[in-house]
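Schema walk-through. Below, the input block comes first and the output block second. Nothing else is stored per chain. Lengths vary across the set, and this one has 220 residues.
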Amino acid sequence: PAAAAPAPEAGGESNDTRDRRIANGKLYSSGVASWRARVASTGPAEEPSSKARARVFVRVRPLFAHEAERGEWECVSTDKGAGVTLHEGTEMVQAGKGMVKALRHHTFAAARPLTDDDAVFSEMSRDLISLATSGACATLFMLGMTGSGKTYNMNVIHARAPAELFAALTAEGRADPAAPPSVGLISYELVGKKSFDLLADEKGEVQLRADAKGRIQVSG
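--- output ---
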């Protein structure tokens, strides 16, 4: 349900949606606090089906001090038992009341919240490692606004996934540490039209091209 309160006088109020959202940050933040106080955990979320084609994880970046100072407010709530809830501060016209401020709560129960670096690696990389060791492919997408922490979280995986991958193969007896490696690891970063080798010490630029058969060729 929406938590609504009468809107202040329109005189001098900005027409920019973001400005109005920040200007009413205290009202919305209070509504979020009330919502969190009302909602009790519903217990552990169900494990996703082993046949699921995709899994969604969410890690919320805390507000920076300068963001809080200018009126930004926490619009996401996470709970291991209830998934992830997005709090939408908006405006609407109600009969007999005119324009009111409203706070809507959109809950995504299947999304899995992550709280720290260990959770990022264990939860997000678990399927990547197991699929790779079985000879299959997996893809991880990092989505978010600029400055939301995509690179930071990806670095957690870059730092730990290679060791976990080769450790898993060794444990299965499929990789002999003393023998030439039969498994290789590549990692490229795509920035605009440029590509960079993340595993090279100098992280130099490389060229990725597709041949006539659609195979990726690397040079540089």
